[in-house]
Amino acid sequence: MAAFTKVEGAERGDVKLYALSTCIWCRKTRQLLDALKISYSYLYVDLLPIAEQDAVMAEMASYNPRRSFPTIVVDGVQVVSGFEEARIKEILR
């Protein structure tokens, strides 16, 4: 499975971001997470080899059936799809 890149910060659970390198909303989500100074891991799905992309998209679909970007998964149970700043802040307090 593809390796996520870890960003250090305050622990708020296991925060994973599925993103695209070319997506402005994904970039805004990373900027928000950085501004909140929390620890998270991210993965640019579009930069993976095709075979890995398929596996990651299948994994992501279990959290977000629409497979839209960005998708944030917190502790494997809370999911935010799209750039929803207020919801992201609420979940990661």
Topology, element by element:
Blueprint: E1 5-7, E2 15-19, H1 24-35, E3 40-44, H2 50-61, E4 71-74, E5 78-81, H3 85-91
Parallel strand pairs: 2-3
Antiparallel strand pairs: 1-3, 2-4, 4-5
Can you tell me about this structure?
The chain has helices spanning 24-35, 50-61, 85-91, and strands at residues 5-7, 15-19, 40-44, 71-74, 78-81. The chain is an alpha+beta fold and 93 residues long. It has a 5-stranded mixed β-sheet with strand order 1-3-2-4-5, with helices on one face.
Secondary-structure class: alpha+beta
Please tell me the CATH architecture by its name: 3-Layer(aba) Sandwich
Please identify the top-level CATH class.
Answer: Alpha Beta
Give the biggest beta sheet: 5 strands, mixed
* CATH topology category name: Glutaredoxin
Shape: globular
What's the number of helices? 3
The overall pLDDT average reads: 95
Could you name the CATH homologous superfamily? Answer: Glutaredoxin
Strand order of the largest sheet: 1-3-2-4-5
SSE run? EEHEHEEH
Number of DSSP strand runs: 5
Spans of at least 5 consecutive residues whose pLDDT stays below 50 are none
What is the CA-CA span between the terminal residues?
30 Å
Task: Give the % helix.
Answer: 25-40%
Total individual domains: 1
Integer-rounded radius of gyration: 12 Å
Tell me what portion of residues adopts beta-strand conformation: 15-25%
